[in-house]
Amino acid sequence: MLLRYEDRNSMAASVESRVPFLTPQLAEFVTSLPEEYLISADGVRKSVFREAMRGIVPDVVLDRKEKIGFETPERKWLLALRPWVENLLQSDRARELRALDYPKAVQYWEAACAGRRPFGTAIWRWINLIEWSQRAGAQYD
Fold first, then answer.
1. For residue 70, what pLDDT band results from cuts at 50, 70 and 90?
2. pLDDT in tens, 112-137
3. What's the confidence (pLDDT) of residue 133?
4. Domain identity same for 78 and 54
5. Distance CA 3, CA 111 (A)
6. Residues 81 and 129 in one domain
7. Is residue 9 within 8 Å of residue 72, measured between CB atoms?
């Protein structure tokens, strides 16, 4: 799931990501390594990989302690789409979906827009479920 999100987000932002390094064989190998190869005695993460990259990747990059992640601007996106999302949430389809706790979904959405809750994956899931159900003409018994 995270690889799919990472791939989608990196492509949307024209960012080359590290996903091509991950193969089933590499994942299997890494999970078989002793813990001290993954986290060194002094707490350095990915220690085997960092040492393998010495001389290839600049030391300033390899020796960084902070974790740098790629964060999507979900709040910005969803606030820009707010009229569409609210129209979707107010639809008959949204109200009839038994898999969606409609009152809680609306409450969560309002809290997220007001800054009291994070814009998380739940909102994207509701939006996709409602939109897909409408487009596919899905019937639920």
1. low
2. 999 998 887 889 889 999 999 999 98
3. 92
4. no
5. 29
6. yes
7. yes
